[in-house]
Write a structure and sequence with these properties.
Layout lengths: L21 H13 L25 H7 L3 E5 L8 E6 L11 E3 L17 H7 L4 E4 L16 H16 L3 E6 L1 H12 L4 E7 L9 H4 L3 H12 L1 H11 L7 H9 L7 H10 L15 E7 L8 H9 L3 E6 L6 H4 L1 H24 L9
Parallel strand pairs: 3-4, 3-5, 5-6, 6-7, 7-8
Antiparallel strand pairs: 1-2, 2-4
InterPro entries: AB_hydrolase_1 (IPR000073), AB_hydrolase_fold (IPR029058)
Protein name: AB hydrolase-1 domain-containing protein
Pfam family, one: Abhydrolase_6
Length: 364
C-alpha cells in the first residue's frame, strides 16, 4: 500500500561535498516527480509499469509476486483497443484440472490488487494447482487509459479475460467485495464457473443512492481521504486480529496501486455509478460454494457468514479462529488448507458418484 521509509548507506567519499543548493534540490525533486511512472523499476526486476514505490517494499513474498505481475491484452466491447490488464498467471496451465482464479477486495479495507494473494498464491501453486491472480477492471495495475468502471464493464472485462486466457470453468475466489464481483459474474456467466469461494464476503451492503447523485468534487475528496496514509493505517489495523510486525510494509503494499495516475478517476467513476448490489443475486447462485470467514473479523461481522450460508443453495462454511477480515493474508496456511480441502472433497465426491453408477449391459 503505502510508502516505505528505508535507510540507505552511501559509499565513503574521498572528501566532503558542498551542501546542495536549494535550487538544485528543487530541480532534483521536480525531475523525480516528472519521471515516467514505473521508470527504474525494471532495473530491479519489477515490471516497468509498477509505481516506483514498489522498490521500497521489504516483504519478500510481495516482492516475488510483484515481479511476476504482467499485463495482457483484453478486448472488450466498450473499448476500441485492447485493455492491458494486470495479472499473475500460472507458470504452467493444466488442461485436465480446474483453474483457480483469485480476485481481490476493495480499497476500503486497504487492498485492491493481486498482491493481496502474496502469501496464499504460492501455497496453491506448490500444491500443484493452476492459479491466476487477476486485477479487477479499474483496480490493480492495469494500463493508464481508464475505461468505464461500472459493474457491467467490470463483469464483461473479467469474462473476456476468462474467454481469452482461461477458456474453461474456473474456481472463482472472491474476498470481501471480490465476493460480490464473483456472485455478479457467476449469475451472468454460469458456464465460466465451476465453484465459488467467498472470504469475508462483502455482499450485504447496498451503495447509497445519494452516491450516484453526489457532486464529483465530493467524490474526489472522499477518494483523496481513501488514499491517505492515516485512513490506510486505520483500515489495516481494523482488517487484522493482531497488528502484524510488518504493519507499515503491509500498508505500503495495499496502497501501491493508488499511486497509478488513473486510480482516482477510476474509483470515482465506480462510486458515482452505484457500485455493487448483489442482494437479490445470492439465491440465484447455483454453484457449489465455500465460505471462509475470520471469527474476529472487525470489518464485516462473522454473523453474516451464517446468513450467507443459509441463503446459498449449496455451501460449506468454515471459520478461521483468531483471525480478522483477510485470512489469506493473516493466516495463509489455514486459508490455503481450507481451499484445498474443499476442492479435494469435491473431487472425491465426483469420483464416488461416477463409481456408483452401475453400467447396464444389453444384448443386441
Amino acid at each position: 500500500m503505502p510508502l516505505l521509509l528505508t535507510s540507505s548507506s552511501l559509499p565513503a567519499l574521498p572528501r566532503p561535498l558542498a551542501a546542495p543548493s536549494k535550487a538544485r534540490v528543487r530541480v532534483a525533486a521536480s525531475a523525480a516527480a516528472s519521471a515516467p511512472d514505473g521508470a527504474g523499476a525494471a532495473a530491479t526486476g519489477f515490471p516497468s509499469f509498477l509505481p516506483r514505490a514498489v522498490e521500497r517494499i521489504r516483504d519478500a513474498a510481495a516482492i516475488r509476486l510483484a515481479k511476476r505481475i504482467e499485463r495482457v491484452p483484453v478486448q472488450t466491447g466498450f473499448s476500441g483497443s485492447p485493455i492491458l490488464s494486470s495479472c499473475v498467471r500460472p507458470l504452467k496451465q493444466q488442461q485436465d484440472a480446474e483453474p483457480i482464479v483469485l480476485l481481490h477486495g476493495f480499497d476500503s479495507i486497504g487492498y485492491s490488487s493481486c498482491l493481496e494473494w502474496r502469501y496464499t498464491y504460492p501455497l496453491l501453486e506448490e500444491a500443484g494447482h493452476e492459479a491466476w491472480a487477476v486485477d479487477i477492471l479499474g483496480w490493480g495495475f492495469s494500463d493508464s487509459t481508464r475505461p468505464p468502471c461500472d459493474v457491467a464493464s467490470k463483469r464483461e472485462h473479467l469474462y473476456q479475460f476468462w474467454k481469452a486466457y482461461i477458456k474453461r470453468p474456473m474456481v472463482l475466489v472472491g474476498p470481501s467485495l471480490g465476493a460480490a464481483v464473483a456472485i455478479d459474474f457467476s449469475t451472468k456467466y454460469p458456464e465460466a464457473v465451476s465453484k465459488l469461494i467467498f472470504i469475508g464476503a462483502s455482499v450485504y451492503t447496498e451503495s447509497p443512492k445519494q452516491m450516484t447523485r453526489m457532486p464529483k468534487f465530493v467524490s474526489y475528496a472522499g477518494v483523496f481521504i481513501l488514499k491517505s496514509l492515516p485512513l490506510r493505517f486505520l483500515a489495516t489495523s481494523l482488517a487484522f486480529n493482531k497488528t502484524p510486525n510488518e504493519f507499515f510494509d503491509w500498508v505500503q503494499i495495499g496502497r501501491l496501486h493508488c499511486l497509478l495516475p488513473w486510480w482516482e478517476d477510476a474509483t470515482v467513476d465506480f462510486m458515482i455509478r452505484g457500485g455493487y448490489n448483489v442482494l437479490k443475486q445470492i439465491k440465484q447462485v447455483k454453484h457449489k460454494c465455500l465460505i471462509v470467514w475470520g471469527e474476529d473479523d472487525g470489518i464485516i461481522s462473522s454473523k453474516l457468514a451464517y446468513r450467507l450460508h443459509q441463503e446459498l443453495l449449496d455451501a460449506t462454511l468454515r471459520l478461521v479462529r483468531q483471525c480478522g477480515h483477510i485470512p489469506h493474508v493473516e493466516k495463509p496456511k489455514e486459508a490455503a488448507k481450507l481451499v484445498l480441502e474443499f476442492l479435494e472433497r469435491d473431487k472425491v465426491e465426483k469420483t464416488d458418484r461416477a463409481s456408483s453408477v452401475t453400467p447396464v449391459l444389453t444384448n443386441s
